[in-house]
Known about the structure:
Layout: H1 2-23, E1 30-38, E2 43-51, E3 55-64, H2 67-83, E4 91-100, H3 103-111, E5 115-120, E6 123-126
Parallel strand pairs: 3-4, 4-5
Antiparallel strand pairs: 1-2, 2-3, 5-6
Amino acid sequence: MGNRLGEFVEGLVKPAVVRLFQARGIDIHEVYPEVEVDRGTEGIEIDLLVVNDMEAVLVEVKSKLTLADVNEHLERLEKFKRMLPRYAGVRAMGAVAAMVIPKDAARYAYRKGLFVLGQTGETVSILNDAQFQPKTW
Length: 137
């Protein structure tokens, strides 16, 4: 059931990411769902990898976002360029998306430099304010 809910949330987020990040000045061309990398002793899984020629946003999608989810995504971002060296020259950013986002998790993700995507009405929006500056890896 939990995995199905996660798939549902990912289904809501995936079609919105291009529009959302383009509105923030990140001209996304490609969206890759469920990217898995295995390099023998180490690996990562990325729910949605959205990219253009010079930028990448790694989006972690959850039904309910927790502080642990944010920390795990930060670890994933630290590994990203090492695990996918073809993206070594891009400006990588992170985002978390969820149906339910407790205020403490949203604030924590924001302070750590992550975009926070959540449901607003019938659509998905970036919840960060206009002054937000994403951290880059």
